Amino acid sequence: MTLILNRSEVASVLTMKDCMAAVEQAFRELAEGTAILPLRTAITPPNGLSLYMPAYLKQMGALACKVVTIYKSNPAKHHLPTTIGKVLLQDPETGNVICIMDGGYLTAVRTGAASGVATLYLARKQEGQVAGIFGAGVQAKMQLWALTEARKLSKALVYDISNEAVKKFIAEMGPKLNLEIVPAASADEMMNTDILIAATSSANPIFDGNKVREGSHINGIGSHTPNARELDTAIVKRSKFVGDSYEACFKEAGDIIIPVNAGEIPKEHFYAELGELITGKKAGRENDTEITLFKSNGLAIQDAATAKLVYEKALAAGIGLKVEI
Ligand SMILES: NC(=O)c1ccc[n+]([C@@H]2O[C@H](COP(=O)([O-])OP(=O)(O)OC[C@H]3O[C@@H](n4cnc5c(N)ncnc54)[C@H](O)[C@@H]3O)[C@@H](O)[C@H]2O)c1
To answer: What homologous superfamily is domain 124-297 in, according to CATH?
Structure first.
């Protein structure tokens, strides 16, 4: 039997706290060599892009493949979202497909979770820090949720080029996280913060890296093509640079590829993969003044670990539709 889970069923069992634990374990496996993570495969049908993201985590027993499509004309032409994702989970013992679940909400939570885990290892430990969120879209909400799991924040500032998005963000996330969230009038105002999140759809740097305060931590999760970047050379240069994967960063992240290709920083500026901080091979934050930066491109191991978690919780809760395919 195959269990089918829709978006609301996935959301009903998936918490950020549990997802952070699963994603942390996935990055540990990646660092310890027990994960199989082929690069994502892209196919370009006439109207869009179709991505296939497989992964296997041996210790967790998670074998999965996410299929994500990006069709920009979908909303106008077909009343469908631009991005559609589904995750197919298999039993590693038999290969049988045991679950097919919606991947939209799952992706946002697992992306938040990776930043949450990075924040645990890289942000200063003090309570009452202020977060600054660039972008008020789907990902940004989950990014802030993850930050509140990692650190006890006193307040958050949010900045987006769309005032409408900011209003919606504050109305939804303030009560949900029981946190004071205020709009910032400019990117400069966002510099009066301790932990920054870049979660926009911008292809160009969104703030002046020279203005970031010492001791800050930044999670950069947007742009992931070699020619696009949210972070400027100044902030990359000033930061201890941690990526989700070395390979993904140098294949997909303009944030580091552009300054390296311009000869502004050496490739060795890449300090560590997140998994190396988790296993203790490399140190996370070492003092209160360094600036730390986590660049996330999004890895299939995050999807596989989260899908396994969701499947087990759904079985325990008795939700979803069981079908013989
Ligand atoms: N790293 C990962 O694993 C991962 C996973 C999913 C999505 N993403 C990426 O995250 C980014 C955000 O995705 P989303 O689903 O939240 O998109 P979204 O469209 O819901 O939100 C993006 C927001 O960014 C705002 N924005 C654009 N330019 C800006 C600027 N210069 N300053 C401030 N705000 C600006 C837009 O107005 C919009 O509200 C995308 O680049 C997406 O590809 C990354």
So the answer is: NAD(P)-binding Rossmann-like Domain (3.40.50.720)
Indicate the domain borders of the chain: 2-107+301-323, 124-297
Instruction: Give yes or no for residue 319 CB within 6 A of ligand 1.
Output: no
Ligand 1 nearest atom to the CA of residue 110, by list position: 3
Q: Mean pLDDT for the chain?
A: 97
**pLDDT by residue (tens digit) across 181-232?**
999 999 999 999 999 999 999 999 999 999 999 999 999 999 889 999 999 9
Helix (H, G, I), strand (E, B) or coil at 181: strand
Position in ligand 1 atom list of the atom nearest CA 296: 1
Instruction: Write the DSSP assignment of 35-99 as a string of letters.
Output: EE-PPPEEE--TT-EEEEEEEEETTTTEEEEEEEEE-TTHHHHHS--SEEEEEEEE-TTT--EEE
Is 66 part of the annotated catalytic residue set? Answer: yes
Ligand 1 atom closest to residue 202's alpha carbon, by position in its atom list: 28
How many angstroms is it from 295 CA to the middle of ligand 1? 14
Multiple choice CATH, 2-107+301-323, 3.90.1150.10, 3.50.30.40, 3.40.50.300, 3.30.1780.10: 3.30.1780.10
The residue whose CB lies within 8 Å of the most ligand 1 atoms, and thus the one to mutate among 142, 200, 297, is: 200
pLDDT, one tens digit per residue, over 244-269 is: 999 999 999 999 999 999 999 999 99
